């Protein structure tokens, strides 16, 4: 099949064909006149030049608006909505075409701005959400991640994007029913999570959206509130009973001491005196015991001040003299935190580590570092290790015969009040345990 000539050539040939009759008539009149041969030749040449020039002018006149429209459409296809055509008047067909293309550019520009604003809003919302959000392509490679996801994986987006779900530890998030609750450990962080999964399309391909909500802190706060309510009730009721018991025992003891008991059996008097003393002493001890638990329910909000980390660690660890506490060191850092609460935190951790180290005649080591803007403190001991780490932070739970079960609970409450997390685990590949405290970048002072 013969190929049709280009449109501009068709216009040129059509204009030449249209002007050909006029040219033939002009030549006919010219050569039938009484002009000289030179004049006839000149007039014929002028007519031919005018004929050709008119055809070329008409060709250009027709093609220039089409080229303008072509350039406008190419700009729109490339996403450039700033170019406009002149002469966009709806009074003529050509002006109406320009008018419609300009209107299309305005419409596309508005839609593009709306899309950019929507994407910017979506990114802002995603970054502000505390949940971890991940997007995976059909090849199970990570294509979308928010700040919560980076924190969960302990990886920046630049390193995480493009990685396989299996290498990130998220393979099971792409399988099974949703929504569901699951116990998970990611990047050394374990907890209870709510998993939700959905589908979306990006660049014409189906993707999977995974949303992980950390329920550990929420459940822990509910648990802590329940313990605090229980402690307040118990403290109130027990103190109401202990106060009169202690007072009556003291009064009876004093009265007995002032009474003439010479006629009484000395053994009976001694029993009464000793019994009243025991009642008063045990009531006082129980009151102090309940008061210690009440600190869990009355821990104030942190009052941040500047803390020099090396000086703070060395000052607190010097209090423990039963075992060798080695400060293995770390960088020169300054924290913005509550010094009294951090003192209580480190005292409890070092004391627990020393108690464990005493059983094996081992030692204790304290170190700190800053990683990705996060402050991390470790207290390591050479003790026998932890038989059951899961219940260590539960109030009233203790593995020590004389323990109260509030030390680690208080530590966790202090750390979480500063926005951090605490973990206690057996040392990998060695005897003993290690307590790890991580505080967010906000506590690192400039």
3D structure, described in words:
The chain is of the alpha+beta class and 446 residues long. It folds into four domains: 7-78; 129-216, Beta-Lactamase; 219-297; 305-440, Heat Shock Protein 90 (2-Layer Sandwich). The chain is 52% helix and 18% strand. It has helices at 7-32, 37-77, 93-128, 147-153, 157-160, 216-258, 266-297, 309-317, 339-360, 407-417; strands at 132-136, 142-145, 180-186, 189-202, 205-214, 305-308, 325-329, 334-337, 364-371, 374-381, 421-426, 433-439. A five-stranded antiparallel sheet has the order 2-1-5-4-3. A five-stranded mixed sheet has the order 7-9-10-12-11. Strands 6-8 form a two-stranded antiparallel ribbon. Strand 1 (132-136) and strand 2 (142-145) form a beta hairpin. Helix 1 (7-32) packs antiparallel against helix 2, helix 6 packs antiparallel against helix 7 (266-297) and helix 9 (339-360) packs antiparallel against helix 10. The longest helix is centred in the middle third of the chain and has 43 residues, at 216-258. The chain starts with 6 loop residues before the first helix and ends in a 7-residue tail after the last strand. It catalyses: ATP + protein L-histidine = ADP + protein N-phospho-L-histidine. Residues 60-113 form the HAMP domain. This is histidine kinase.
